[in-house]
Amino acid sequence: MTRPYILRYLCPFQTNTFIKQTMKNLKLSKYLLKDLSIKDQTIHNRMVLSPLAGLGHIALRQLISEFGGFGLLFTGMCSAKAVPHENPNTSLVFKWRQEELPWLVCQIFGSDPENMARAAKRIEKEGFFGVDLNFGCSVAAICKKGCGAELLKNPDLSSNIVKAVSDAVSIPVFVKFRIGWENNPQAAVDMAGRFEDAGANALTFHPRIAPDRRNRPPQWEVIKLVRQAVSIPVFGNGNLFQAEDGIKMIDQTSCHGLSVGRMAVARPWLFAQWTKGFSPGNDIFFTAAMRMTRILSDHYEDHFSVKLFKKFSPYFCANFKFGHSILKKLMRAQTMDDIRNNLDSIFESTPETLSRPNLNLFL
């Protein structure tokens, strides 16, 4: 009698669900754990952390690293003007652990080719795996400066920025971008070709138009068009919540890898779960949140740690059926000790979780 048969006999519904999920994870990990060349570098895992403004800080990256299972990590947005002069010992954003540099990509934003190239040189000097150019952020404060997704309105300037950075450094150059400001997939295809011609070594593509702040589903079919238009690696991004989503995206688009953003904040163990077969226990949410408080306190002063934990909280709370009420308790905290006490109180009885997150909390 095989073990799966015994388990089915004892608990047929839960075991069948478990077996199906395990098979999905195995299928996904088999693809994700294939080597991928990016310029003259090789990564051994095609699942990467998407650049996340205000969220992809040193503490989140450390928590993800403790679980493992990823290929690359990306920083949050760093200003190209500031990077050449930033002190990582005091900076709140341009900050890293030495041990993560071999798989860490620093994302920069700006609109001047010379400033972007100068920042990229500093990033290379520090020993980062690569540099990522932000042509995807659609937040008004960034676009008003002519940066982020605003650059998609100016293909010539965007291409010049990529070329300036590519000419300035020898490390891999990534570009993250969207469809554009109108629903015109051909424009995204054309931009992808321009980026490759200008020297980009890999693309992360988020298939939404810039004005769409996730109120409509991403158009995965456009990832396929971008993938077919270039010879460099393309990472697909957008609504990757469960292993079956990753399988569908790969099957439908033939993308080279997966770039996971908001879900990596909600479940920092997701990389290990999808690629290493990690099976989270019932206490995973409590232990991960509590660990986040400790790591934040290791890297930042209390008031800023509280601020960053509150940015993390909506994504964390999206895991729970009554996430809004849990979020209210966490947001009342004034100190990190308050947050820890609130977590102890919240998890005195285990909150009911959701298999897919509550998107109303995914800001």
TrEMBL record:
Its EC number is 1.3.1.-. One of its GO terms (molecular function) is flavin adenine dinucleotide binding. PROSITE patterns: UPF0034. FMN binds at Q107, K176, H206, G261, R262. InterPro entries: Aldolase_TIM, DUS-like_FMN-bd, DUS_fam, tRNA_hU_synthase_CS. Pfam families: Dus. Its cofactor is FMN. The keyword Flavoprotein applies. It is an enzyme of class 1 (oxidoreductase). Residues 49-301 form the DUS-like FMN-binding domain. The keyword Nucleotide-binding applies. The active site is at C137 (proton donor). CDD domains: DUS_like_FMN. Keywords: Flavoprotein, FMN, NADP, Nucleotide-binding, Oxidoreductase, tRNA processing. Catalyzes the synthesis of 5,6-dihydrouridine (D), a modified base found in the D-loop of most tRNAs, via the reduction of the C5-C6 double bond in target uridines. Belongs to the dus family. PANTHER family: TRNA-DIHYDROURIDINE(47) SYNTHASE [NAD(P)(+)]-LIKE. This is tRNA-dihydrouridine synthase. It comes from Desulfobacula toluolica (strain DSM 7467 / Tol2).
